[in-house]
Amino acid sequence: MNLEDLFDKIKEFSKETHGSSNYDQDELYVMGHEESEFAPLNYLCKKINIVRDVSDLLGTGFLYDSYDLFDFKHFPDWYERQFSKKLTRSNARKISILHIPDNKAIFDSIGTIFKGYEVLRKSQILLNSKNLPVQLGEWFAKSIFGLNQIKSTSQRGFDFILDDKRVEVKVHWNDASSPKGVKIKKSLVDLSDYLIIVYLANNFMVRELCFLDSSFVLRKFSSKGHTIFLKDPEIVSYFFSKSDKHNEKVKNPNALLKYASPTLAMKLAEKFSQNKL
Predict the structure, then answer these.
(1) Which residue of 37, 72, 102, 218 has the fewest CB atoms within a 10 Å radius of its CB?
(2) Among 163, 246, 166, residue whose Cα is nearest residue 209
């Protein structure tokens, strides 16, 4: 897909007002080169033949996020200017924005963060700081599988959605897995349709991925307690480096190969070679 053609159409849409249209009722909008330029996905599908649905954009590197959860500060003014009406709270809750992240800046930042963590770790300052790795691992999952991150009423504050199915994302940060396995709350698995485990190496690159049906996890690994432990030997056959079962769930193969560790990228390159940059 020629992204410049796409961005030109977004700019073209933003130059004119559309108060007489029904695009103000759309729930998916695409951000252009400028943070103040947007266009409804339905409009782009009509204008660009190769854009059929959201999957076509996810495959080229776009992410989509709930407007209600993230700060798209220019969108309300753009919306009011385009449709001659204010963005109501009820409409805002339904809207998601598709945008392309600055992958180079993100990749560079990961390297800088890793160096900083190493200094703090060697200085015996960093003892337990997994919040950043968890959020980064969740972002990797969102990029690779095209998850929509939306605001929820749960204590966690947001949900991940894949094709109208709820996804639980678990991040394990270490160069090696614990013999006890990855610890997951049974209640969270019970509330989801899918479980994605992102195994991050200490250098913040993805060393392995595992995609499981939540019903399978509950049926095979559930116990009487509130916690499920998934040990590597029990689920290794479902690792992406071993199995092709969920390859079709990958919406953005380029993101998978880009943020994978060299070892994992080599194992996956042949499977996704037709999608490599």
Answers:
(1) 102
(2) 246
Integer Cα distance of 47 and 54 in angstroms? 14
Give pLDDT tens digits for 177-195: 888 899 999 999 999 999 9
Interatomic CA distance for residues 65 and 98, integer angstroms: 7
Contact criterion met (CB below 8 Å) for 79 and 118: no
Show the CA angle centred on residue 168, arms to residues 261 and 135, nearest 5°: 50
Cite the residue boundaries of each domain of the chain with CATH code 3.40.210: 103-275
- Give CA–CA dist 121/271, Å, rounded: 36
User: At residue 173, what are phi and psi to the nearest 5 degrees?
Assistant: -110, 105
> How big is the chain by its Cα radius of gyration, in Å?
20
Residue 176 near residue 165, CB atoms below 8 Å: no
Rounded-to-integer distance, Cα 75 and Cα 6, Å: 18
Give the pLDDT of residue 235: 95
Sign of CA dihedral 173, 207, 231, 229: positive
